[in-house]
Structure formats: structure tokens, C-alpha cells
Amino acid sequence: MATKVFMEALSPTMEEGRLVKWLKNEGDAVKSGEPIAEVETDKAIMELVARGDGILRKRLVGEGDSRPVGQLVGVIAAADENIDALVASAGAAPAPAGDAKPAEQPAAKTIIIASITMGSHLVTIISSLRK
Question: What is the pTM assigned to this prediction?
Fold first, then answer.
């Protein structure tokens, strides 16, 4: 099963982060807890770590780009796993303002509540809201 890589709140007041540098390339094997990117927060540059084992299949944010906390920035998956739907949903543009159709609501929304460094461990609190 694919692991979504989100822009995490790496400080208590962080609302968005700037991806400074990818430490892994697309196609590289990654293990859970391994640093995959460096992110500039409102206070410092910190490591974004993998939350699952597999291969970094897709980087969705370029170096130097900023993204809000909670936005999908990459996908970790098995080499033969189809990630097209995940990648397509990450790049979906919002509907134009004059469009009469309301946007479909996702079945679940993931919210990163907090990420706290405790010694050498990064603890992330994540909540999933379902309809």
C-alpha cells in the first residue's frame, strides 16, 4: 500500500514549509524514519522523514517550492504499485469560480495536528476525519 508523504508541521507554529532539498531521488529505496527531504519551517531547517518503507516513486514538489502543512508532497510505494490516482489527485486544479458544479468531497481528510521532536525521535500526531 502506498504511503503519502505530506508537508508536516515540523514546529508548533508552522503553517507552510519550503522544501529546501530532496535527500532521496525518485526510484530510491527508503525506510520508515529515514530522512527524505529538508524543509525550512518558520524557525529552522528540519528533516522530513519517510512514514513507510518502499521506493520514493514520485516527488510532487520542487526544491525551493513552498506548500501548506498537510499538502501531499510525495509518494512512497512498491515498484509495481499503481500510483496514478494519487498523483492525479495531488495535481488536480480547483474548479473555476464560475463553475456551477460543486467539487466532490473526499471520503476522508487527513490533518497533521502536531510534530514534536523528542530526543532523536520525531513524533507526529495525525487525525483522519471521515464523512
Answer: 0.68
